[in-house]
Amino acid sequence: MALTVFVAGATGVIGRSLLRLLRDAGHTVVGMTRTPERAAELEALGASAAIADAFDEVALEKAVAAAAPDVLVHQLTDLSTGAGAGVREEGVRRNARIRREGTANLVRAARISGVRRFVAQSIGWAYAPQTPPFLETDPLDVAATGTRAISVTGGVIPLESAVLDQDAFEGLVLRYGQLYGPGTWSAEPSGTAPLHVEAAAYAAFLAVDRGRSGVYNIAEPGGALVIDKALGELGWNPDFRLAGQT
């Protein structure tokens, strides 16, 4: 069934691949961007453009209401980094803020507009310390300290709670492993739970109309994350890659 899908973070590394998948499946896609200059990029990817900032509650509410989406997909991050510990910590704080405040604003806009389903990006390395692999039911690291606390308790936990602890829509959280591939920081698999960026986009695409509310680990098999739930309920394939270019 063709749906109207609102994608926040549409020009990001996952968002661009996701737009292509949604377009090719026949869905109507509205991509959110903060600047009018990025509108042409979204239109080239087959989406309409919505100009809004995740921290502007009023503009965001209007943008989502105008799109009237069936599904909202949240792929917003702020991952810009630089040299030096202080710069890196500031980047972690910015990313935590968009997960905390941006997600709350998106959830509010989705609820007001009657969105039926909300799919959000999270991370798969926020679990409390234990011997891996990790199941979705394992606890997150609520006792984290330092920079990890900024990320986990200041960003990941508020994001997931906002999406899951409500009854206005179906909420799905995708806990991604460490991304690699085009547009990412690594061309080859790295980390304890590697994940190709196009396979990550495919998981979000499937979650638009598959799977029950809840959390899904998304990573390649054999690593730190148990992915049986994503394989079974979403029908996800970690080997998925986009064919060709547009």
TrEMBL record:
Superkingdom: Bacteria
Entries under Pfam families matching the protein: Epimerase (PF01370)
GO MF assignments: aldehyde dehydrogenase (NAD+) activity
InterPro entries in alphabetical order: Epimerase_deHydtase, NAD(P)-bd_dom_sf, NAD(P)-dependent_oxidoreduct
Domain NAD-dependent epimerase/dehydratase: start-end pairs: 5-200
GO-annotated cellular components: cytoplasm
Alphabetized PANTHER family for the sequence: NAD(P)-BINDING DOMAIN-CONTAINING PROTEIN-RELATED, PROTEIN YEEZ
Protein's name according to its UniProt entry: Nucleoside-diphosphate-sugar epimerase
